[in-house]
Amino acid sequence: MSFRRLLALGACGLAGGSVLFSAVGVGKQPARGAGGDAETRPAATTAPAPGLLLLPPAATASCPAAPGWVERSAGGGGYWDSNWDRREPLALINLKKKNEETGEEELASRLDHCKAKATRHIFLIRHSQYNLDGRMDKDRTLTQLGREQAELTGRRLASLGLKFDTIIHSSMTRATETTDIISKHLPGVKTISTDLLREGAPIEPDPPVSHWKPEAVQYYEDGARIEAAFRNYIHRADVKQEEDSYEIFVCHANVIRYIVCRALQFPPEGWLRMSLNNGSITHLVIRPNGRVALRTLGDTGFMPPDKITRT
After folding, report:
1. How far is it, in rounded angstroms, from Cα 239 to Cα 248?
2. What confidence tens digit (pLDDT) does each residue in 27-37 have?
3. Which pTM does this prediction carry?
4. Fewer CB within 10 Å: C terminus or N terminus of the chain?
5. Spatial CB neighbours of 23, under 8 Å, sequence gap ≥ 6
6. Of 120, 150, 174, which is closest to residue 283 (Cα–Cα)?
């Protein structure tokens, strides 16, 4: 069994495996007796691959069970699921209805009819700095610095010279105000408000953090909604789309980090391992074949250092 395959089998599976193969460089490992002294043990009849230390299940932590609405990659173990957005051409046709007379020619024609032609460019913008003292959402308006950040983000997007199709934004006040300022730099681009992109707790993070521990019910209230936002907005282009599209989504750090993990087929529980500045730009590219690339993550290089915040 190859080194790569062995790792794949041992990873905490998308289906919830319990055995972990830890890839660490080891030499000959002396065993410890009950008194702590080293003792020599006979070699195993089936030795593991060189450089691999097999940890027994009792010595490892199991992967947390994911909520039912989170879809795991069919491949698992680091293998790409080409039908992650349920738009893979071969999955869209009914092979049982294949015409026996035309055979492969008809199959190829039907596959072509289901193939996307355009590339989608998705720009995920985190809202600017806002008033943290506001008790209600309507009171959490942008600070003066936040308004300056939104201006800088708007200018940056306009300087790219792209033909943006739409701006879809969270209905929360800080995201709406950020959108209003950005849209002034992109005249003629339609704006759409949605509750799906509101901030929330997408999924319990792993590893957990001590400074942020929402009630368990919040993950269920917010998680399904944020996953719905991912499925609704993040996918390859429609087959009818002829030209590449450039879309802006103005929302929140938790939502953006979760979307990035899901789009790249990384474990979604790792979303809190990333940090995003206010007004930052994250650029995802979805190719017609369903491949996804992350061009930029949380870019604020266009802002002066004294204007950068993460509140």
Report:
1. 21
2. 444 444 444 44
3. 0.75
4. N
5. 3, 7, 51, 52
6. 120
